[in-house]
């Protein structure tokens, strides 16, 4: 019989339930949710006894995915990915340096990028044609990465099918590397938001970034990359009466 075990003072799960959460959310996120539910119960904001703690944990609203602000964490993720798979490493690096959505990265073929200074594609979300420049470092990476590949090969193909890896597979790859690097709340938008955050920090040009992201306003762009909240936090930290 799969009996429930105590994973916190007021949180009980079966091993099967815990494994299901960990497989979907990752170890770090699962532990954070258990801690959060336990604190809510202690503070009287949730009943001490739920019919199902598993359902309560599953239904918790995930926190907003943030950019990776710390460059040492970015390097740690690169290192983790590179040790396992050069394909996964390059997916991360290309996403960080172009700001492309994962849904636009995964279908790319070698012929879309080989020997080119930019990528032209119809964006998955906006259905608009857009040109994305490739910096010198990425062009060098691409030259090495595509040696021996044909123009019809997918850049990020499954070794079993030859087709592009699925989005949920890309998420699991990033999540695992993030856990090893100590990065929280990683999602498929992490690379795009990280690109935007560091681009803005370097150039302070919200207008250009807005155009890159095809956003309708600069305020949306700054909120998307976490700048608005960061500025509020910094202002409050320095404020005193």
TrEMBL record:
Q: What is this protein called?
A: Integrase family protein
Residue span(s) of domain Tyr recombinase: 63-237
Record carries keyword Lyase:
no
Record the organism. Answer: Bacillus selenitireducens (strain ATCC 700615 / DSM 15326 / MLS10)
GO biological process assignments: DNA integration; DNA recombination
The cross-references to InterPro entries, in alphabetical order and at most eight, read: DNA_brk_join_enz, Integrase-like_cat_sf, Integrase_catalytic, Tyrosine_recombinase_XerCD
Keyword annotations for this protein, in alphabetical order, are:
DNA recombination
Q: Which domain of life is it from?
A: Bacteria
Q: Which PANTHER family match?
A: INTEGRASE_RECOMBINASE YOEC-RELATED, PHAGE INTEGRASE-RELATED
The record's GO molecular-function terms, alphabetically, read: DNA binding
């Amino acid at each position: 019989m799969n009996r429930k075990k105590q994973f916190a003072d007021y949180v009980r799960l079966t091993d099967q339930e815990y494994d299901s959460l960990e497989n979907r959310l990752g170890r770090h996120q699962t532990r954070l949710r258990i801690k959060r539910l336990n604190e809510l119960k202690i503070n009287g904001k949730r009943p001490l006894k739920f019919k199902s703690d598993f359902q309560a944990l599953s239904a918790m609203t995930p926190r907003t995915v943030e950019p990776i602000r710390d460059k040492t964490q970015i390097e740690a993720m690169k290192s983790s990915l590179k040790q396992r798979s050069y394909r996964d490493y390059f997916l991360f690096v290309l996403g960080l340096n172009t700001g492309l959505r994962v849904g636009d990265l995964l279908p790319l073929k070698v012929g879309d990028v080989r020997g080119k200074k930019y990528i032209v594609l119809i964006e998955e979300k906006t259905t608009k044609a857009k040109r994305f420049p490739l910096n010198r470092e990425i062009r060098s990476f691409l030259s090495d990465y595509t040696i021996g590949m044909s123009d019809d090969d997918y850049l990020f193909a499954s070794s079993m099918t030859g087709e592009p890896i699925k989005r949920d597979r890309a998420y699991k790859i990033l999540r695992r590397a993030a856990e090893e690097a100590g990065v929280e709340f990683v999602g498929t938008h992490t690379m795009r938001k990280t690109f935007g955050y560091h681009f803005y920090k370097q150039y302070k040009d919200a207008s250009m970034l807005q155009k890159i992201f095809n956003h309708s306003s600069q305020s949306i762009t700054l909120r998307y990359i976490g700048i608005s909240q960061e500025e509020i936090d910094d202002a409050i930290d320095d404020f005193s009466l």
